């Protein structure tokens, strides 16, 4: 029973945080225009997905048979996965995220996201510089296109000289 509660704890915590964030997103004040989504739409959508995943995982853990939790019940030949990594990796990812958010207004979305994704990939164990560079550029280009061209979100361009990169990307995307 204690094992099951330990397995449920992260999902319950994230569920509570998600419900709290939804309450905050529900209080976003704006003037409604017909046939247009408001600034609260995307945060609410993401939070709903987060809450849904937590509810699904909580249900899955509760419905799983207790025999599946026993250490000796795994299939022969299969080994349990090791822990995700030391806590310092998690704290480093949080630190990278905080730095990303604090510098976004200075370096802009394009440069900030490029280095943020590269930093997270490097922290996650991808050590091939070419792979990190190609994936970081691709992910940044995808998100810039998605937010600027499809959703029409104004992303921070940064201050000069960083804004030049943002404007060049916007010109490339036709924004």
UniProtKB/TrEMBL annotation:
Xref: Pfam families: TctB
Regions that span the bilayer: 12-30, 90-118, 130-148
Domain DUF1468: 13-156
Keyword Membrane: yes
InterPro entries hit by this protein: DUF1468
Keywords from the UniProt entry: Membrane, Transmembrane, Transmembrane helix
Keyword Signal in record: no
Official protein name in the record: Putative tricarboxylic transport membrane protein
């Amino acid at each position: 029973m204690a094992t099951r509660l330990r397995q449920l704890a992260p999902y319950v915590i994230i569920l509570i945080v998600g419900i709290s964030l939804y309450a905050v997103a529900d209080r976003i004040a704006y003037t409604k225009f017909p046939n247009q989504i408001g600034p609260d739409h995307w945060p609410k959508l993401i939070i709903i997905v987060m809450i849904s995943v937590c509810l699904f995982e909580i249900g899955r853990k509760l419905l799983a048979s207790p025999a599946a939790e026993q250490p000796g019940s795994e299939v022969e030949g299969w080994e349990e996965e090791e822990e995700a990594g030391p806590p310092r990796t998690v704290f480093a990812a949080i630190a990278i995220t905080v730095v990303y958010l604090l510098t976004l207004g200075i370096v802009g979305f394009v440069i900030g996201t490029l280095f943020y994704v590269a930093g997270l990939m490097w922290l996650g164990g991808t050590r091939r510089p070419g792979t990190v560079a190609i994936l970081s550029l691709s992910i940044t280009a995808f998100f810039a296109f998605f937010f600027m061209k499809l959703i029409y979100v104004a992303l921070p361009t940064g201050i000069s000289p960083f804004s030049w990169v943002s404007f060049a990307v916007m010109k490339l995307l036709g924004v």
